[in-house]
Amino acid sequence: QRYRDPEAAEKMNPFAEQEAWEDYQTEKATLKFGSKDKKLASDEYEYVFEDQIEFIRANVMEGENYEEQPPEFTDDSKAKSALEKLQEDRKKLPIFPYREELLGAIETHQILIIVGETGSGKTTQIPQYLHEAGYTIKGKIACTQPRRVAAMSVAARVSQEMGVKLGHEVGYSIRFEDCTSEKTILKYMTDGMLLREFLGEPDLASYSVVMVDEAHERTLSTDILFGLVKDIARFRPDLKLLISSATLDAEKFSDFFDMAPIFKFPGRRYPVDIQYTRAPEADYLDAAVVTALQIHAQHPPGDILVFLTGQEEIEAAEEILKHRTRGLGTKIAELIICPIYANLPTELQSKIFEPTPEGARKVVLATNIAEASLTIDGIKYVIDPGFSKMKSYNPRTGMESLLVSPISKASANQRAGRAGRTGPGICFRLYTLHSYHTELEDNTTPEIQRTNLANVVLTLKSLGIHDLVNFDFMDPPPSEALLKALEMLYALGALNKLGYLTKTGRRMAEFPLDPMLSKMIVASDKYKCSDEVISIAAMLSVGNSIFYRPKDKQVHADNARLNFHLGNVGDHIALLKVYNSWKETNFSTQWCYENYIQVRSMKRARDIRDQLEGLLERVEIEMTSNFNDLDAIKKSIISGFFPHSARLQKSGSYKTVKHAQTVHIHPSSGLAQALPRWVVYHELVLTTKEYMRQVTELKPDWLVEIAPHYYQLKDVEDTTSRKMPKLPR
Ligand code: CDP
Ligand code: MG
């Protein structure tokens, strides 16, 4: 058998392995991690979150508007028995035997670190236990989640268990969507939303308990929350603080929270046998497909979960699997292929939750969504190629990119654990045991060390935290990145020379957006086009999923799209035209179909826009419309995005004005053929090249007019103009 690596034959559970590894001597890495260590990210930047939300709407909430949802349980006996069944299930969770002990520990200690395996009931049960024990009399219970999809799905689950309507006693809050009410006592929210709550309520007075959940994920917001909640715990002795995590780095959390005690309960129910490849795989995608087929042909029933890095890979794997199973004939059971990635239409996503029919086997091809956020029942086999898409940040240029990179040991163990939830399982790692030990980092680098910090710095400044260097970070960000963020906020006019928040900065902080977008909106006040600019901001916030391009109708779709680009108005104005045209049809779904536009993305843009409109009022910006003055709109955009300017080169590529970085217009842009001499872009995406996405033409004088502190005349002098070749128009 291909996977029987004698060295790895001993059956290990992922946690024992991790512990054993701690005593292991680190050798210097000699083997390359497969042949694809640092493959470029796929062309499709993944807007995972938008789609996860749609996904939950379809699978958990049954309908878009929770208000219109019928109550989950009525008084009839059928509903009662469903509720009773849920109550029985609660008692079967691994955390249940520890209920009293846990409540006792929370009673005695202000801060408690809680460690238990994924699926053991931390997120759904602890807030309920606290509620049952009376903690909600004194205030609400907040439970933070790194992913929006988790906040929504867990809130939905808990509201079912409590037999209440989602949004009433149990609710969730995620960016641009608040599903809570006056009644809400258990509030599931993204870590980013709790961070924003500090702005309105710096001592979190309305909460009696804050549970920072999935702490091991170490997202940027979670890391900032650590510092903030630690601080308020000092002057609010009545506040209980719980830090819960699935992995074993609890000592680190305990150290940070002044030696808070660790409450650890066993959660693993079934062993997982881990198998490695004998030699590194040259092509992990192919290896994953072959492994899936081998399992299907040779192993007992049980579903398969394959971790891939994104849509392109998943589609490729799906194609190959379909092709190869076609030849298998009827001797072998049916293999149901279920892809799950960001841009997959909602109807297809629900397929992964449907129970596998008798005699068939399901293979779920998933991105990292399935690592911790989604629980799929019936998985017995996990195939782990060992890669994921990771954000990385270059503080020098301020550029963020997504790269396919090796995962960490903690991640690998989390993935393996998915095979043992409902019975003993097997995890096939498509790398060698040696690679595992020598090439995988123990833990994923915390996001704070590989991301743009402008947004959190603005939030911290508006919380009155001035001295960022001495902020209580669990792992401090690189000082370069901190400096870069301060510089950027100064350039945007959010901070003054002394690093204090300006009036503009205060207004910007009100918007839950990237500071450049917030600045664009604040600047629209001056140019009297706030109406148009918030539409553009909303459309940009929806991400890359406005236009729909079915494989068999690409020409039609492209023609429809080009209609909005007439006159080379640029991508920002094209988005505005899409929004306004949709509005003119009274938000018609039919119109969306006819124009190859995704209606759910448009609805989301409308929601976001409504909220931005509300925020305009809050920062006292008048709603003014100036659709015919495209220059005014462009100047607002440049007020926020002037650092993202680029100039055309003789070669047809561009160079960013500030950092002289070579970049290109993304083929999906309306200006991809026009190639204007000067452009401003929304974002850079690294695929085969560094691409600018959402591009608009600008006049170089505007840069000096709008950002004289950032650009000088010499930066924008058109010295190359005489030598410019004739370019296709
Ligand atoms: O937080 P932790 O990973 O410890 O577990 P949890 O999220 O509280 O999940 C406990 C159990 O609740 C899981 O094993 C699932 O069976 C169930 N659950 C569910 O059915 N639907 C959800 N959205 C979340 C949890
Ligand atoms: Mg959890």
TrEMBL record:
The keyword Nucleotide-binding applies. Residues 289-464 form the Helicase C-terminal domain. The keyword Electron transport does not apply. Transmembrane segments: none annotated. One of its GO terms (cellular component) is catalytic step 2 spliceosome. It catalyses: ATP + H2O = ADP + phosphate + H(+). It is an enzyme of class 3 (hydrolase). Keywords: ATP-binding, Helicase, Hydrolase, mRNA processing, mRNA splicing, Nucleotide-binding, Spliceosome. Its EC number is 3.6.4.13. GO terms for biological process: mRNA processing; RNA splicing. GO terms for molecular function: ATP binding; hydrolase activity; RNA binding; RNA helicase activity. Residues 103-266 form the Helicase ATP-binding domain. Belongs to the DEAD box helicase family. DEAH subfamily. PRP2 sub-subfamily. This is RNA helicase. It comes from Trapa incisa.
